Amino acid sequence: MLFIGTDQQRTSTLGCYGNAWAHSPNIDRLAAGGVRFTDAYTVSPVCSPSRTAVLLGVHVPIHGVYENGVAPHDHQASLTPYFDVLKAAGYATALIGKTHFSPVPASIDHLDAHTGNSDKRGPNVSAAEFLETYLVNQTMGWIDAQQRNSSAASPSRWFVYTSMVSPHPPNWVPPGGPWVGVYDGVALPPLNYRPGDIGKLPYQTRMLLGLLGKTHDDPPAFPLGVPNMSFIDQPAATGADHPDGRYNYYTQAAYVDHQVGRLLDFLDARGLANDTLVIFASDHGSQLFDHGINNDKHNFLDASVRVPMLMRLPGRLPANETRRFATTLDITATILAAAGEAAPHDYQGFDLLTPIEAGGGSPRHVGVSCEYRAMVLVTPTWKLAYFPEQGEGRLYNRVNDPMEQNDLFWQQPTTPRRQRCAMACSSRCCAGARSRMLWGTCRRTRKRGRRPPRSRGTTRSHCAAPTPRFGCSRTRCASSRRSERW
Question: Does the reported pTM lie above 0.90?
Fold first, then answer.
């Protein structure tokens, strides 16, 4: 099994997500050979919370790493990294690249960690020495070593997580490769920005991004609240000390695509492609100046919270097909399912492999994500973000307003009733995580079929039903059923 992860990669960098101008022939090839999730969401739109959640198979309120630099809950040691399960099942395990979680499990046999944004990355680093080139070289060497120890009587079982840092900024472009110049003369999509967008951002978002007091003036990208397109769309440059523009971001994403292609070609050359589950996903996206936010995340807008997510396993998964909802939390349960292992009872993601292999759809019917002290729910029609500390919310009609410019949170008819339902359902998102932690770890309660304790502030009429896994359509509360009709 090969899990290829990137950092801060938007879906707009990939042609297979409907962007004909994007340069991504290799990731598009991976999508053509497998399943692409059209509405995949990160479990958290920031590095460390997202990566910790995937490692441990639980939502952010369970592990407690709410933001970069925040320490986990004391009970994290009682949670099970998926590497532990794979190791116990006889898999050789490796993590090559970015970690950004702590502690690193001892069940990783081979660890080659490179987490810093300037580790083997910089304006004067050659393409042969640049980080992702190195990571792919090390991955191929490690897989070859596992195959040398394999035999017909005892075939090797291995899992490697190749964790890339690019296209996380700074977006240095290594010189001399086929990715250089691919966006010369290419018109990028218009900036998704309207005057006043910075001031319309939720308080938490502005606080986390350092935008408090910069509502009307955030140079150099938005001096006096006006986009400075000569800065935002400055030409791509190799060797630039501060590569801040969109063209450098997309060109570095093209470099990432080239490295993914090297891994796919390697599997083909070694005769491993038909027997290897390949999963590709990013830990989160990036605003890349949309809505007045620089090349950053920490918010629930689609450019940051919606991510590319693909998986391929010839003979078991269909080729060139799409499914709708998934989250990066589902990666963990899917890996264990592919290994033939049961997920620990406190895991909250869905096994995507088994139902799709059987010809069905994704078992997930909504997206859910947490960031700091807020949460978001995404249905086919609606996106609802709620910030309980400020009593703020954002509600977007995904069908009529895909650019997320028309907030309906306080504008819908019959607002009081609908907002009560929305807030109760959103509160259940975080409270349900705490309830599941208690419910899932208490075997006596599970055997007796008791419901988890309701959180303070919810009512039986709104949220009496248990929510075994976020996004599960089998046990939706009354308010969530009403919300889907909005």
Answer: no
